[in-house]
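Hey all, quick one. A colleague (J.T.) asked me to put the adenosine-5'-triphosphate job into the tracker so the inputs and the structure tokens live in one place instead of scattered across chat threads. No bug as far as I know, just bookkeeping. Sequence used:
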Amino acid sequence: MTNALLKLHDEVLAGLEEVPLVRVGGSVCEVTPTYLRVNGLSQHLRLGERVSLQLADRAVIGEVVRLDTGGATVKPFDERTAIGIGAEAWRAGALAFRPHSSWKGRVISALGLPLDGKGSLPLGEWRMPLDGEPPDAMSRARIEKPLRTGVRVIDLFTPMCQGQRLGIFAGSGVGKSTLLSMLARCEGFDTVVVALVGERGREVREFLEGPLAPNRHRAVVVVATSDESAMVRRLAPQAGLAVAEYFRDRGESVLLIVDSVTRYAHAARDVALAAGEPAVARGYAPSVFSALPRLLERAGPGLEGTGSISAVFSVLVDGDDHNDPVADAIRGTLDGHIVLDRAIADQGRFPAVNILGSVSRLADLVWSHDQRELIRKLRSLISRFEDTRDLRLLGGYTPGSDHELDQAVAVVPKIYDALRQLADAPPSRDAFAELAQAIRG
Ligand SMILES: Nc1ncnc2c1ncn2[C@@H]1O[C@H](COP(=O)(O)OP(=O)(O)OP(=O)(O)O)[C@@H](O)[C@H]1O
Ligand SMILES: [Mg+2]
């Protein structure tokens, strides 16, 4: 579906900034599998700007990833296009979307083209740059409105607020996408924007027709599958943010879901390496670590008087190592992280949330005094229960000798049972009441 769509359609052209003044053209002087070199334009170009490359029958666009006196390094969005030496290159400005309220219910590509066969996308009046700036920190509204997600373990132990940014961290196949899809059902949002980055093609339809189906009418889905170029994959979360920012500026409360930011980081790494940056941390170039917070900061509350973007980002941790540099950089930027644990998933306990390893930095805004005390107590019982797991298995535990441990052994399995929630189970209405009932029962 991708190749034909990457052609420079009218819609993409409409999203490109108008570049006034004299049109200055350059030409391609070097072609490699990962980048092109363009002569004659470098004095007029800026980093991150788009360049349109003229082929015999159409134009393709690329992005300037490096500038030097010898010319510009350009990475085309479609790397499979056969561009030859001497192809004309033109400045094409910054890429932007012109979202419209009728985009709800639609599936679009990272370049803003419809992917759902429902005809062309109406264009709105506002031009939203894909690499937009986060709102000014001092003028941002404060986060204060609690949110019920309907996922019991989150509403109890890591509750969210509107405008909060949360990460879901896990190794592969532990349940990130499933948990995201459960969150996509969350009520209390006007719009859901989903950016699927580097997903397998199969998963896209599963996501759209499965968990998202009841919410399709209020969801805009941006898709860049794993077979697309690094440039397009890097663009997908930015495109999702541009759409989310549009609805936020209209005063709506938006839920943004990005699956996964790690694939965005991988794509950003490929682009940086093609630009000649050195690899500093596990193959990642320094610009990846500055691009990540710039992207993540765009989510969150808007300026006073506008709406907010609550965001959930999934993060694939390399080989279950939660301290890999990308996971670390992302964790430090967000307002909370939920850690999924393979050992818990192996026990068949879903969502496989590691309660003790998960934190919501805004939980205190949600919990009442009593609820906070209760959660503190439950966490300490869970910690006792997990710490003594081996001891108990080896028969080193005699009931009656340690009151707190007795309590933990009696209560924690009930908590774990209460937290089980299958992907298609109904959302929880009142997590605290449901937990209390489970413990009493
Ligand atoms: N809440 C749940 N209820 C039942 N099964 C679940 C749940 N969450 C995850 N699973 C099981 O775990 C499997 C993997 O889940 P999922 O695809 O969400 O993982 P992932 O972390 O997104 O994987 P990847 O890293 O490959 O994208 C699912 O196919 C499903 O069998
Ligand atoms: Mg997944």
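Adding what we noticed when we looked at it: The first strand starts at residue 25 and ends at 31. The first helix runs from residue 2 to 5.
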